Description:
The complex is a heterohexamer.
Chain A: H1 2-11, H2 17-54, H3 70-80, H4 91-109, H5 126-135, H6 137-147, H7 151-182, H8 187-192, H9 205-221, H10 233-236, H11 246-271, H12 286-311, H13 317-344, H14 348-371, E1 381-383
Helix pairs in contact in A: 1-2, 2-11, 2-12, 3-11, 4-5, 4-6, 4-11, 6-7, 7-9, 7-13, 9-11, 9-13, 11-12, 13-14
Chain B: H1 10-24, H2 30-56, E1 64-73, E2 76-84, H3 86-109, H4 116-135, H5 139-157, H6 164-195, H7 211-215, H8 225-240, H9 249-252, H10 258-267, H11 269-279, H12 281-285, H13 295-316, H14 321-341, H15 345-372, H16 385-388, H17 390-404, H18 410-425, H19 427-452, H20 468-483, H21 488-495, H22 505-528, H23 540-545, H24 547-553, H25 558-606, H26 609-633, H27 638-658
Antiparallel strand pairs in B: 1-2
Helix pairs in contact in B: 1-2, 1-4, 2-3, 2-4, 3-4, 3-10, 3-15, 3-20, 4-5, 5-6, 6-8, 8-11, 8-13, 10-15, 11-14, 11-15, 13-14, 13-19, 13-24, 14-15, 14-18, 14-19, 15-17, 15-18, 15-20, 17-19, 17-20, 18-19, 18-22, 19-22
Chain E: H1 5-25, H2 29-54, H3 60-90
Helix pairs in contact in E: 1-2, 2-3
Amino acid sequence: MDAIYQLIHDYCPTMPDWLALALAILLPIAIVMGVFLTVFALLTWVERKALGRIQNRRGPNRVGPVGLFQPIADGLKLLTKEDIVPNAADKVVHFLAPVLVVVPAFMVLAVVPVAKGFIAVDLNIGVLFALAVSTASVLALFMAGWASHNKFSLLGAMRGVAQVVSYEVPMVLAAVVVLMASGSLSSVSIVEAQRGLTGWFVCKPWGLVGFVIFQLCAMAEVARTPFDLPEAESEIVAGYHTEYSGFKFALFQMGEYVAAITMGGITVTMFLGGYLGPGCDLPKFGWLISACWFFAKLGIIVVINIWARGTWPRVRVDQLLGFAWKLLLPLSLVNIVAMAVWHFAPNKLVGWVESAVLLAVAIVALVKINAGQTFEKRSYRFTS
Amino acid sequence: MNELVKQQWLIPFLPLVAAAVQSLLPRKARKLSAGICLTAMGASCVLALRAFVGTLGHHEAERAVWNFVWFDYGTTRLQLGFILDPMTAAMALMVTFVGFWIFVNATGYMSDDENFTRFFCFLSLFAAAMLGLVVANNLLMLFMCWELVGLCSYLLIGFWYFKPSAATAMKKAFITTRIGDVGFFLGILMLSWQAGTLNLYDGGNGALEQAGKLAGLHGWFGWSMATTIAVLLFIGAMGKSAQFPLHVWLPDAMEGPTPVSALIHAATMVAAGVFMVGRMFALFTAGGSAEHPTFAMDMVLWVGCFTALFSATIAVGQFDIKRALAYSTCSQLGFMMMALGAGGLVPGQFHLLTHAFFKALLFLGSGCVIIGTHHEQDMRKMGGLRKYMPITFWCYLIGMLALAGVPPFAGFFSKDEVLLVTFQRSKVAWGLATFAAFLTAFYMTRQMFMVFAGKWRGGHHEPHEVRWNMWLPIAVLSVFAIGLGFFGGKYEHYLGVHEEELHGKSLVMGLSVAVGAAGILLGWLMYGRKTMAHAEEPDPLEVKLGALFTCLNRKWYVDEFYDATIIRATMLLGEFWRVFDNRVIDGILHGIAWTAWGVSQVVRWVGDEFVINGGFDAGCEGVRLTGREFAKLQTGRIQGYLRILCLGAVILLVIWYLK
Amino acid sequence: MSATGIIQTQTLEVSLGPQHPSTHGVFRMDVVLDGEYVVKLKPVMGYLHRNHEQLAEKMTWLGSMPYTDRLDYFCSMTNNWAYALAVEKMTGLKVPERAEYIRVIMAELTRLLNHSCAIGFLLSDCGAWFTPVLYALREREWILDFFETVSGARMMCNYMRFGGVRVDLDDASLAMARNIVARWPAFLDEFEKLMTENEVLLARTQRVGILSRNLAINASVSGPVARASGVEYDIRKVDKYGVYDRFDFGVPVGEAGDTFDRYMIRILEMREAVKILEQALRDIPAGPFIAPEAKLRNFKVPAGDGYGRIEAPKGELGFYLVSEGGAKPYRYHVRPPSFINLTILEDMCLGQKVADTVIILGSVDIVLGEVDR
Amino acid sequence: MAVDPNLKSELQKQGIFVMPVEFLYNWSRKSSLWPIQFGLACCAIEMIAAAAARHDMARFGAEVFRASPRQADLMIVSGTVTKKMAPQVVRLYNQMPEPKYVIAMGACAISGGPFKDGYNVLKGVDRYIPVDIHIPGCPPRPEALLHALMTLQEKISKQHLNEVSWYDKNAPSEFPVPQYGAHDLEPPANPKVWEPPKK
Amino acid sequence: MSVPLGYYLMLGGVLFCIGLCGALTRKNAIAVLMSIEIMFNAAILNFVVFWYYLHNGALTGQMFALFAIAVAAAESAVGLALVISVYRHYRSVDVDEMKALKG
Amino acid sequence: MNIVFLTLSAIMVLGAVLAVTLRNLVHCLLALVVFFLGIAGHFFLLKADFLGAAQILIYIGAVAVLILFAIMLTRNISGTEGGRSSLGGAWWLGVGLASSLAGMMCVFVRRSELVTKLPYGATEEGVVKEIGKLLVTDWVVPLEIMAVLLTAALIGAVVIALEEEKKR
């Protein structure tokens, strides 16, 4: 922020101070938002294309080159659609809910370091802020479901609330590991703590486990398949946004996708070294290269999301919650212990082995405990 | 050593954690529960051993303390602290070691109890409390642990609370020790008041380090302040260590499971009193000298002496195997107190240690016997167990010989020292104690013969040897019951107390050996030559002593005496107040009412009915209405109360504002 | 008392359908939910009641044949066959051997088609975002191409005739069929890799919607649903109609009777169907494809009644016909497997979660055209 | 506001383009036709087939089948509409937000098809709701559906902002939902969208 | 920031009293609980305010606020559990109806 | 005076007032959330970032959701209080008392010498780290007690809520 302020000051000394300050504050936000909105639009296209690939189809290809303008068409269409508010609905809440879905998703963006030296606000509680704000989406979700006065919406909202609240816990615990390793809550410091050839936290046993937990929780938090119960089509029509049409629905979609992206951004920041990568420290184009690295990593996360969506059925609600409480939560607690073991180990190798063994044992044990009651091998007889 | 003291807290902490974990375990987790407790206790034992080793190298009476502020409010700060000195180290080691083996034994003894985990929870808590008491460098912490010990004993004695006798016993133990605790608490308060601190040692500012100063102040009854406090503290010790007249709870405490008895009687609770007196020894002796001991010392001496003899006589007449042992414990505690009262800190503490080992051995042995004979406790219905339970027999024999003071077992050395130091102080006390020692040898011999000799009198169920987890502890403990006595000389050195050369050593030693031998001989003569043939046969001693034996068997009627005096008096007082309340107070009220009624009758009859009556009616109506209105406040509705609260706040603020 | 047994809550009445993504058409379930648990379920049918039986009674015998196509619109071939079988029984027409072989080929191809789509939809109900359906439909297109080549229509083939089939199979179409059969196992392997090895699917389907053997028998459930519950009942084996006694194939039978078993039974039945098809395509004899005495015009059926049944992909499909000797049936009744199988829906769903009812319904594999007729 | 062609060309000469707005509007609607996930009978299977690998409606941006009518633009009435189902169909149509389109797929949806004689079969869904495209066939092939879709796109791209019904205050926003009367559905048809053929 | 301390204190007081008002007047137990949350928050705000104005350097005020937040969370959990439990008894969450001491 | 302060405070007071006056409980809850957000905003203003985030996380993420579930579990889904008044009998008394208390408080604040007090130089950096350190050093005992309290509250809440089931 200071740098931009300085820049404005240098290039345009006549500009009044308050304007320069406002610009210095607003400019990064505008850029980040613009970038991520583009990414959002791209993501919907990528998702439809990728799903098409997975399903042996071609996907949209009539609108613009290889269907690239599809998101624009969708957006424009939704914008011009009639906005229906059901008679029984709670008008105010019904109106506020989609707005509240989008706002936290964008607020999280503020603390994602997109490139070297480029972050909207470098809060010293960055990660905590991100986690805190993303919880707020629960309420929006519930408001949407409740205000619609539709039973499917309500079911979806209740599911969503239970799901987000449950997954919040292992998610925060998984993030704790990173905070322990980097000794800071600031997202930039976390990225900077991951320098080095194997510096990315995902390259460490606890980091890998933390990454997986965090990624799963992030998917659940933003209700992506296989955790998309709040909007489970085959069960409760469209879940909490059943009664939303037009641009409000678009806002829901946007909130969901932007949340997915920002969650991916947080994941990248915390575990995948953020914008770090070869060449990110170059004096001139370092920021560009680092941005490329960041978005490349983000792309991987996003593709994983889509991939999961195309291939996995949805889990049931009790399995969903059981998974969080019975598997992820204990595992994330063990993971914290593993991190401590790593930290206090006399040398790197010992720490590696110890924490890896600890985690392996924990995973095997937990999977055994949980899977024992779920799967069984069946055999069938043939009569003739 | 200064580093070690900072880890002293771990010693009680581990069993405490174990207890906490136990409380969360499901009932079914028996193995896990036992495993956790044993691990915690074993770890504590290792820590205690380390502390002990740490104190070994030092030849002076060195102590390390570590005090810290618990919390402070205003100018007052409450401190807690830990101490590490030879006495603590030895005691902690004893408690953890003996406790560990008792735990092992308990896994066998309680193996078919459904509340296994609860039992181990309490047991761990008990051990933790006792260890906390041992390592405390602070009377406040000592008192907290002291009360916790009391609570645990309450819980454990009444572990089988569904038995009415156990329920009674648990209450009895709790209330009796509480009586002593009143004194103890008063002593603590006075100490805090006078010394300004409850820390025992604090680099010259501790309470014990101020004993000399306290001895110069005037207390109650013309005693010095130090003596007053010491006497009050000793009352607490009397309750906890079951000294006459507060000894009545101890034998009843046998209602608990046998490992609990072992723990209470050997390692923890009763030892607490003796240990506390030893710990506060500086306060007891302050202001006195060898020639003119303080009143506190005299009190300790004579209470101990009397208890030793008194309990020994009772023990002679008991048929319950555990009860006999319980009175034996009482008696031995008397010995310890006596030694302390005679100024012998080392003999008292040393006897405490050796006694812990062989008494734990005896109790666990009796537990084995009880299990082996299918929960039979009456010695008359035993007999001939030597054949059936050889391991238990041999261990028990060692314990018995140690208690009887037969050389070279541990009891001989410690008891000899006790007698020796008493001999220095008072020939009378020494004589009584020697007689008590004779009785000790006698009743133990009696017990041995009744239980192990002769043939099985218990009926159809043949007794059997117990499993390894029950006999292993007594085997281990018997090793110590043999060998520990040889460290007597070293122990004195270790404690760092240099006592002058005592005279009459050979006389006392010779006499005590002789007395022990005589006791055993008499026992053999009466019980060994011709063993009891069947359970209904009268006791040979009963034949000889007649009514006196009944008297002994009924414990000199102390309980009955208490029933007849104190309890009756309390009941009477209560009854009196009830009657007083009914008759006098109510009478006065009724009288007032009747008078008022009468007056009103007269007034109505005499006076102007309309004027007065009208006014009165209005007044009454007013009162009634007010009452009704106020009754509305008492609605049970929280919001109503909150409103009144708020109203009060507003009124207060207004008043303040106007002021 | 709540089904969850933990916190008592208000129940919620939800109407799933008639327009609902997972009701496979216009079917409605009035579900009473306690939280997520189903405490009451009432199936409401009739949204696709197209008066099939009534129309058939006004139609000539052969005139009803195209209508049978539209009963179970996945399996027009088997529907044709069952109807033809009933009429052949009444008239005593003898079907030539080649025609029987062609019928078996068509029926088993229909089985492949139906089962693959049924499983695909089942998994789509699990929330698998259409991917399995689209895989199934991709393969279905090949079979439909074959049907179209033979009969001229993709779905509503109207292919069977009393006493044989309408058009003969030429070598080119036989090669086409062989091609389909040859590639089917590979498709199945791919499908199983996507699905059977998917932990989420296992977790969703195992021990969900258990149908006991007794209830299955008592409710006269048939087809893969019954066999998944351990009922060894397959009309191909029991009646040995057509030329099924000449083929070597097994009938897979499950134990648990849950949704997973119903899924697996269909997979295994497809593998068996591939075996039958291989044998049939290998052994198909030359000869007439329709009985020479069969006539299409002025077709009359002697007075009396008859019941023809086959093992349709969904279960026992039967036609009960009563004739007065005229050109039209006096009574025309269909015993549709979907409808009968649907009767046990509530028993399977009670106490399950709402998400389960959806896949239980999917695993029963109904087609509303057949349910409502 | 009606902009007549003369005025438009006049404006264009002066550099003001009305066309692109309308073009964008139409373009966005036609390239993003989200059908409601709603199948009635046999034709529904062919509708799914049209979305499947070989035919792939997704190419036109129309594969986003929405389960909720609130989010759909296009209703494909795929199959026989019975009299029990007709109210639901109309209700669903009412629940869809404007602008909305209907494709009547298959003979049954157009006229009752082979089941026309049935007492329970509605003789054409266009009696109650305005149908944009009729596809004949029993059932129509997926290609026919794609053709219908493209025809609809053409139709959309020819619409003019000033003529479309949904900005017309007088145009009905909700169509009456038929109810079961004494003998049949009441009303038997919606006069606003259908008039009986003159005999 | 040039807001004097007094304004914050007044804000805290007013908020507290709004909460109090709710706690005094609402009939619904959940609403009462919500009002109590408002009172809690007003108090927590004051902790932070006093820390910011008076005790800068030491973090006692923040720590206290932190603990108060945690306690409030526990309080609301137990309180709502009680409300649910009470609701089962009375089929109502009206505080006026909860006046009998036994269930 | 600071505009941000005034705006935030106005929003908060509005939220609080709505939270205690609205009839529909769910609306109350939403107003309460606004109030919570305002408090968090004030925390940020007062440079207590960590507390602000914690406030959002705990109050909005947890407490509000908890209340939500309670509302859902205890009444009909719509959350309205039915036809009856949402206020208790002597509501005027409560309002009067509360407002007079508020008035008195303001009067006392005005009278005290704190009223014009301005802040010391604010520390911004490293507060989070400092809090973390303090939590595990000086404040470790309260922290532990808090942990025990939370556990106890959790178990207690579960037990209370499950109580009914046991009786059956």
